[in-house]
Amino acid sequence: MRIDIVTIFPEFFSVLDVSLLGKARQQNILDLHVHDLRSWTTDRHRTVDDTPYGGGAGMVMKPEPWAQALDALLRPDGSSTLVVPTPAGTPFTQAIARSLASTSDHLVFACGRYEGIDARVFEWASSRCSVVELSLGDYVLNGGEVAAMAMIEAVGRLVPGVVGNPESLVEESHEDGLLEYPSYTKPASWRGFDVPDVLLSGHHARVGAWRHEQQVERTRRVRPDLLPDA
Ligand SMILES: OB(O)c1ccc2cc[nH]c2c1
Fold first, then answer.
1. Is 230 in the pocket of ligand 1 (CB under 6 A)?
2. tRNA methyltransferase TRMD/TRM10-type domain location, by residue (predicted)?
3. Which of 12, 107, 112, 209 could potentially form a cystine with 117 if both were Cys, beta carbons 3.0 to 4.6 Å apart?
4. pLDDT tens across 25-82, in order?
5. pTM
């Protein structure tokens, strides 16, 4: 999978050189490139923003630098997916992460700043690629970079070969629509707190049943909206 990120803060993504995603880059499993939007400006001040039509506070990102960047990065065959982090987007979920990981092999992340990107950019881009506007949650960040980082990690880890043991992806929160069960490791008794006996029983069927019960109970308590009869 190739991932391109366009931002005015390219240094923000230097963290993608470490950990699992960094290793995947070194192994050419993930082909990840970060671009400075100002590379596509033409004026002496490398301007990327201007005042909003209709008035109001803040500035809006100019359309032309974005169009120049996307013209350079989007695949001519229309197979790219343009991912736009925005508070006004569709809530990002594990299902969307799975969909992006399995149906797109080229993602371009457009990280906005200020009050956002001129809306015409996405109208223009929609004839050149799939445009997906996604929200990290019902709160507002100062720009798209933090959201893009979270989305890139959630998608990147699902790409085959990135996570060493694919089994570890199966029993995670949201993978089966439920929150994950509580996990424990040695010692069996710690500061007066004991690991549930069933986990020490060696009885796999009972362990499996207990873990599912824990998932349902935790989901009902913390995220009842995820339960099928919600
Ligand atoms: O909260 B967010 O996900 C988000 C995304 C993009 C921009 C651009 C300016 N503010 C933003 C906030």
1. no
2. 1-227
3. 112
4. 888 899 999 999 999 999 999 999 999 999 999 999 999 999 999 999 999 999 999 9
5. 0.93
